[in-house]
Please model this.
Amino acid sequence: MMKNKKWLYVACIFVLWILSSLLVESSQAALCAFRNPDKNVYVLFPEATGYRSVVVKLDKKAQEKTEKYLGHKLDFDEVGEHTFYLILKDKDVIGMIRPHAERGRYGIVEMVWAFTLDGKIKDYKIQRSRERGTDKVKRVEFRRQFRGKSLKTAFTEANSKKINSKLFKVPKKSERICSVIAFSAKKNLFLYKHFFPEYNRNAEEHTNEKPQPNPEKESQEK
Model:
């Protein structure tokens, strides 16, 4: 009897440990680090010679604008500072990288988006994921469906975070992670346009607004 109670106690401790790690991870979803940028910058942009990190702040007005576009509330930790990476060829900016995390069923999914200067997706990488089907969405066959897509693309179904299966071919048993990626693409293309109209030649095309003065940006070149 005592032995059974001991194993029950150990099992409860293990479950609590797993749940606590997921909660901590989930609470830091927007704070996605760019793991190994000195390698991955040049994987995503082989012609690059350097990069510069830029920290921008999403204020209340920008939050409301973003949520209106998405049709969904942002996570509480997505209001505040965000980090982007300007990709350089010598002194010229040739693209943008945006590390981002979205909540999945089994924790956060860490992605790195590569954007061109005409407001399109160049590619993406999955840094970390426990979701079912992760191996499938890492494959070039799936990733190429996002290449060249822009804010004109209906990444998700109307008023939903679910991936638009009429536009994207979804691998079997991987709809959830595909939806996470599609919603992240939609969100980060919008934030890219909002924060960096000077590096996005199609910035005005999707909003019919004049570019606003840029927020203060802290930058660090490497």
Notes: The two ends are 62 Å apart (CA to CA). The chain has one domain: 30-221. DSSP finds six helices and six strands in the chain.
